[in-house]
């Protein structure tokens, strides 16, 4: 049963005010995530954690975001967007304060999971606000400006994270959310319309429960699989079976019930489904970068934490610039070329990173991350615009929730898969590098090795083993970048099935 409501018509000036009002809220998650990613190597040492363990600081947040994202699609239709914005900003900021006071990795992970519950609402509410505020022909430009504003958080995040970690403490990385949260609250109250209730449908708790169990079990399987030797472990088998069974039950439930947690009607839209696939891989790579680039810069190239933040800055600049360009292009041209350019730029940047050596100069790294950021801008803006071009207004809250869910899943799965692949590739490279290291190898015995690599002494063996471990891990990073290149190129043919705007116009209700 629905309540007949309409969004208020806003003047051009009011639309601009709304767009500016939501920018700080859009900055919050990007700044937080990329500031934290720069601080992770330092936190790993302080907390005496492995790379897999410390990665849960990212993945716990992303898993919670994926689980609860569809909830905000339902809530926004019950209580209005502005009230939800205020709720999630307050909760997100309070969790940041709690994380800044935490004393153990377990506490941090728990508070990050709770913070992910609140952070899950940002993406769907931001998209809903743009879709409700701007007419369809201006949404490409509006999404471009929104992405540009959000990228300012990704620019500031690495620099702020590096500065606070280097000169103060990793705790201040989380506490830095407080002033931005206060600014976001003030602007939301001042400029963003309340939004109106559009439905009275009941909450699908059954669907929510089984989707949550599926995501949680699958994430545990990915995170613990490498450590527990995958399907040789009863725990991994149990998590895999639980994920499979709950996914099946959830799928049957969605297709056979009214008011399902995820509205299956949105999957009938071709452009929207393509947007889901590309958005999934886009976030897979975005947060994969967040988990890979700072450690390789700090641990293998010897960059201080502040320098790491500065080297990462061009990525956000590239995204800001390309988002503005993409918004202009989408207003005048078809989206297919914009999507293709974004994919090619991202693939080229990951290919560049896969060719790096430990002594590569900072300028080359900055060029690679700038190109990658530019690709993200082109792809993100064009996909968000295209995904909703032929979607009826009544389905947009469901569509924004589903798109945000898939992107969140891409984020959490991306970090887990790339970290697991990193561990696996490190093990393989270590075996290859060390298989001929022996005092019985004539070339090793006769070759003039450094004194601290003397294989006849224990200290020499330990020193050489540490060098092999470091080189093996660096090689594994390169393998991850090659994997990301292949994945992006595999999606390029999807551009061919996208319809032109004229055909889309005939499908809109």
What is the gist of this entry?
With 509 residues, the chain is an all-alpha fold. It contains 19 helices and no strands. The radius of gyration is 24 Å and the shape is globular.
Output the CATH class name of the largest domain.
Mainly Alpha
* Strand-residue proportion: under 5%
CATH architectural designation of the largest domain: Up-down Bundle
Fold-level CATH name of the largest domain: Growth Hormone, Chain: A
Helical content (DSSP H or I, runs of 4+): over 70%
Reported for the largest beta sheet, the result is: none
**What multimeric state do the chains show?**
single chain
> In angstroms, what is the radius of gyration?
24 Å
- CATH superfamily heading of the largest domain: MFS general substrate transporter like domains
Mean pLDDT across all amino acids: 76
């Amino acid at each position: 049963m629905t309540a007949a409501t309409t969004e208020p018509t806003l003047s051009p000036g009011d639309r601009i005010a709304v767009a500016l009002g939501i920018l700080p809220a859009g900055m919050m998650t990007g700044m937080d995530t990329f500031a934290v990613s720069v601080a992770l190597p330092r936190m790993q040492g302080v907390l005496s954690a492995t790379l897999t363990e410390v990665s849960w600081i990212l993945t716990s947040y992303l898993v919670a975001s994926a689980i609860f994202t569809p909830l905000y699609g339902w809530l926004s239709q019950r209580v209005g967007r502005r009230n939800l914005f205020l709720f999630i900003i307050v909760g997100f900021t309070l969790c940041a304060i709690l994380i800044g006071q935490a004393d153990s990795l377990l506490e941090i992970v728990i508070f990050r999971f709770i913070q992910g519950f609140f952070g899950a609402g940002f993406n769907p509410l931001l998209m809903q606000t743009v879709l409700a505020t701007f007419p369809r022909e201006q949404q490409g430009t509006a999404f471009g400006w929104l992405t540009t504003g959000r990228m300012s958080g990704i620019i500031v995040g690495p620099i702020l994270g590096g500065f606070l970690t280097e000169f103060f403490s990793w705790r201040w990385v989380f506490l830095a959310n407080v002033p931005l949260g206060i600014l976001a609250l003030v602007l939301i109250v001042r400029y963003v319309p309340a939004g109106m209730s559009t439905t009275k449908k009941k909450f699908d708790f059954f669907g929510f429960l089984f989707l949550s169990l599926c995501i949680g079990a699958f994430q545990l399987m990915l995170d613990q699989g490498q450590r527990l030797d995958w399907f040789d472990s009863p725990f991994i088998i149990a998590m895999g079976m639980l994920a499979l069974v709950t996914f099946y039950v959830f799928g049957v439930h969605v297709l056979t019930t009214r008011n399902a947690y995820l509205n299956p009607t949105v999957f009938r839209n071709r452009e929207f489904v393509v947007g889901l696939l590309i958005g999934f891989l886009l976030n897979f790579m975005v947060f994969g970068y967040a988990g890979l680039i700072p450690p390789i810069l700090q641990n293998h190239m010897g960059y201080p934490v502040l320098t790491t933040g500065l080297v990462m800055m061009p990525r956000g600049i590239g995204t800001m610039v390309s988002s503005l360009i993409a918004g202009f292009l989408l207003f005048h041209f078809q989206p297919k070329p914009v999507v293709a350019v974004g994919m090619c730029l991202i693939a080229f940047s990951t290919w560049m990173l896969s060719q790096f050596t430990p002594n590569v100069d900072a300028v080359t790294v900055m060029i690679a991350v700038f190109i990658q950021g530019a690709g993200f801008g082109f792809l993100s803006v064009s996909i968000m615009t295209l995904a909703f071009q032929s979607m009826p207004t009544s389905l947009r809250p469901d569509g924004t929730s589903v798109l945000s869910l898939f992107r969140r899943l891409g984020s959490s799965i991306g970090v887990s898969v790339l970290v697991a692949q990193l561990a696996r590739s490190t093990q393989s490279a270590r075996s290859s590098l060390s298989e001929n290291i022996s005092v019985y190898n004539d070339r090793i015995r006769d070759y003039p090795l450094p004194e601290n690599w003397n294989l006849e002494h224990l200290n020499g063996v330990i020193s050489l083993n540490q060098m092999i471990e470091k080189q093996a891990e660096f090689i594994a990073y390169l393998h991850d970048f090659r994997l990301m290149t292949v994945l992006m190129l595999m999606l390029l043919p999807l551009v061919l099935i996208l319809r032109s705007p004229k055909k889309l116009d005939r499908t809109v209700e």
